[in-house]
Amino acid sequence: MGAYGDVYNGWKNDPERFWMDAASQIDWVRAPSKAFFPDDGVYGRWFADGICNTCYNAVDRHADGDRADQAALIYDSPITGSGRTYTYADVKTEVVALAAVLCDRGVGKGDRVIIYMPMVPEAAFAMLACARLGAAHSVVFGGFAAAELATRIDDCSPKCIISASCGIEPGRVIAYKPLLDGAIELASNKPDSTIILQREQTTCDLIDGRDFDYADEVAKHKEAGTDVACVDVKATDPLYILYTSGTTGQPKGVVRDNGGHLVALNWSMKNIYGVDPGEVYWAASDVGWVVGHSYIVYAPLIHGNTSILFEGKPVGTPDAGTFWRVIADHKVSVLFTAPTAFRAIKKEDPDGALIANYDTSHFRMLYLAGERADPDTIHWAERVLGVPVIDHWWQTETGWTIAGNPVGIELMPIKYGSPTVAMPGYDIQVLNDEGEEIPRGELGNVVVKLPLPPGCFPSLWNAEARFKEAYLEEFPGYYKTADAGIMDEDGYLFIMARTDDIINVAGHRLSTGGMEEVIAEHPDVAECAVIGIADKLKGQLPAGFMILSAGVDREISDIQGEVVKLVREKIGPVAAFKIAVPVKRLPKTRSGKILRATMQKMIDGEAFKMPATIDDPAILDEIKESWATHVG
Ligand code: COA
Ligand code: AMP
User: Fold this and answer.
1) What is the model's pLDDT at position 353?
2) What is the CATH number of domain 506-630?
3) DSSP of 538-586, one letter per residue?
4) Which residues' Cβ are closer than 6 Å to ligand 2?
5) Which helix (H) or strand (E) holds 304?
6) Per-domain residue ranges for the chain?
7) pLDDT at 454
8) Residue 587 CA to ligand 2 centre (angstroms)
9) Handedness of CA 352, 356, 357, 362 (dihedral sign)
10) Exposed, middle or buried by CB within 10 Å (0-12, 13-18, 19+), for 376?
11) What is the number of the ligand 1 atom nearest to the C-alpha of 574?
């Protein structure tokens, strides 16, 4: 058995020792007396009597130690043509000043703060300033519309919102302030104040008494030299809430604690990503997603790395060589992104010719996650980059890798299409619908035996019953990942599909149920179904099928346009909803359940078995015909 087997079995035989060893790398205010507290929380809690502060571990211990002058955060923004490097000492100055501004606004331990920002360093400072004060942040991705922001405001009732005047997408500047004001207008729980970063691409008006200018307020405290100490929090206190798509339009507030998160993320940097403190690590994602939380902000800083915050796209900012330019300019050792980014680069530069313009000799490893990594993309990336390409599988709920290739322990042989093996902390099993273990090689429900390891969510924000119902009830004693997969004879896992109505569009997790709720609001739509269809670039794309209300005789193209606009306005451009097909009927079981999976297989041209319970098989032919007419 290799090093991985030794470490994995070491964890399995003595999880207490394993996690207490990992916890010794963290600076605690009061060290925990033991790792696991089985009687606390829903399924137990980690390091429950420990006291700590996440900002201290991510910033102060480096800034006050021997990393003060090391680059902590490199902002690289090809979309605005700007950039800046912040040392650990600089980050501390920025975070302390912003924490002082938050104190002025009455934010303290236990409060919530929403952060609705583009990919600017101030977004990371905002997260860390909240952590410093023991306030839980909730970052909302900039591609979500006002209504989605309002849902999150109502769910976590923030005392303050930190935002910016605008975000920048290729070819357009997105004014955030109207979206923010619209969301506050829609929400029932109004925040007391907002702090707005004015960007030169578009500034905005501030409402007297409610909106405060980020730069002015921070400057005042820098000038005054205001000090704000890190607040002691319990290991189990919430560090953040991150909303993710559930099976309805109501997103789930995934809660992350402080102690377990510190321990797990710190452990992951060396053992999973194989990086040593001081090296440059780049997660090309967005702070609005879990990858951005864990691997742009927290893990690299906790571990003493240099992290890159990239405001741009893999293509078009300015070309498909941008990633190689960033790797060369900043001497990146490890890059983590979604496969879709590489599919986009491959489409523009199929031979990877642009890479020859850059010195990528520091680059060691590419990590992919967020969606299934198709073997074609992995082979291509391996060929053009000449480094190993590592797939790993995890979720917003877990915050770090469930199955991966633990490079820092041992580079396991790669099986294409598999994110490799279970990480220590995760006892992964594959069960049938009756909850029984199934033989290796067979497709089933991928579950994790409880307890989940440190760093994973202990519950949903203010929704313990939903937490139990959504994740723990179907397979008692296990966490349901809602992914279907196969484990082979060697313990390699293959993740094949979601078992619920979540789809994955360009690495973004979206709820088709949420889109259906929006489409159904259109007055001319009587019923609808949204499915995820295969797309060469984005992995999946949402496609809506709608039955129009009786008597509607308007131009169908007008209705299609309105439905597309409605989803963009209510959910946001990130939904990438552009296909709305009128149909006469939807295929259903005799008990009335829409056969979405059958529709998806038919449209994607996959083999499918006609469900025995279908009420009328002719409906599938009608749908195929409508698809051919309206989409082609
Ligand atoms: N604010 C506002 N709008 C945003 C946004 C943001 N932060 N992010 C995306 N959008 C918009 C896009 O401009 C696009 O609008 P459009 O319909 O007017 O063109 C829409 O939302 C869909 O975005 P996306 O699906 O990302 O498509 P894209 O064509 O802009 O880019 C990729 C495609 C593949 C280049 C891009 O998705 C990508 O780089 N993905 C990989 C990295 C990643 O972030 N993964 C997520 C988790 S690891
Ligand atoms: P998110 O919570 O946005 O990170 O999305 C999590 C979901 O993305 C998982 O449940 C999977 O369906 C999918 N996913 C993430 N990483 C992978 C991967 N490496 N392989 C296959 N699917 C993945």
Assistant:
1) 97
2) 3.30.300.30
3) TEEEEEEEEEEPTT--S-HHHHHHHHHHHHHHHT-GGG---EEEE-S--
4) 244, 290, 369-373, 391-393, 395-396, 419, 483, 495, 498, 504, 509
5) none
6) 2-312+392-485, 506-630
7) 98
8) 28
9) positive
10) middle
11) 21
The per-residue pLDDT for 246 is 79
Cβ-Cβ contacts under 8 Å for 65 (sequence gap 6 or more):
none
Of the ligands numbered here, which is closest to the C-alpha atom of 493?
Answer: 2
Choose the residue to mutate in 372, 397, 416, 502 for probing ligand 2, maximizing ligand atoms within 8 Å of C-beta.
372
Determine the pLDDT at residue 1: 65
Q: How far is CA 37 from CA 9, 28, 52, 202, 236, in A?
A: 21, 18, 17, 50, 11
483-530 confidence digits (pLDDT tens): 999 999 999 999 999 999 999 999 999 999 999 999 999 999 999 999
Query: Measuring from atom 5 of ligand 2, which residue has the nearest CA?
Result: 395
Query: pTM above 0.70?
Result: yes
The CATH number of 2-312+392-485 is 3.40.50.12780
148-198 pLDDT, tens digit each: 999 999 999 999 999 999 999 999 999 999 999 999 999 999 999 999 999
Q: Does 507 sit in the ligand 1 pocket, CB within 6 Å?
A: yes
Q: Give the separation between CA 257 and CA 272, rounded to whole angstroms.
A: 21
- The rounded Cα 160 to chain-centroid distance in angstroms is 23
Token pair 């690495």 in the structure block, residue: 507
- Those residues of the chain that have pLDDT short of 50 are none
Single-letter amino acid, residue 562: E
**Amino acid identity, residue 487?**
M
